[in-house]
Fold:
Amino acid sequence: MLINGSGDAARAWLLGMLLCLVTAGAFAHGVSESDQSFLQGATGVHFLPYLYLGAKHMVTGYDHLLFLCGVIFFLYRMKDIGVYVTLFALGHSTTLLLGVLNGWHINAYLVDAIIGLSIVYRAFDNLGGFKTVSGFQPNKKAAVLIFGFFHGLGLATKLQDFSLSPDGLVPNMIAFNLGVELGQLLALGMILILVRYWRTTASFARHALTGNFALMSAGFVLAGLQFTGYISQ
Structure:
């Protein structure tokens, strides 16, 4: 399942670069100054604010959204979509909670680079790359769960930068995690609406593979930015 013709490949790379330009500022789990001030100064239980922040982070977290786009790109049945999204949620919920509560300190650049590569992996899988190159198809569900662990670890790594107060930390993290799940459902709904509409048009058959090349391009560039940050820190 490879794109035929240099024109399609060129458009894919250009689209991937545009995705990167749009999302580069928000990648690496960017947090606004007002949200940073709240996280650094809050003590005690703040269930609703943390719920809101979790949902906001997922809806504006373009790394997560690009990965989800790749996951559901060729999934047509709601049952299948539910299974994959549940596995992703289970993965990032686990490492988000454990990472913050246990104080796991992992280099943010490396975690975010892996998150970028998760987009590459998923798009490459959608293109049938593993079967074409090696004749072997990795377990798709296991891959989504494993990369979910890294996405959650990225969230945990960023939250630890703000020296969260231990007072009320557990309920606040549960609220944040619930917010992430709500945000994921909202974002997934919007993505599904767009993808399902696209599938009703003739352009989907012509450009679906080009879209996955664009996703893969964006993932490579985003991962490259993080590796560059790690080397130059």
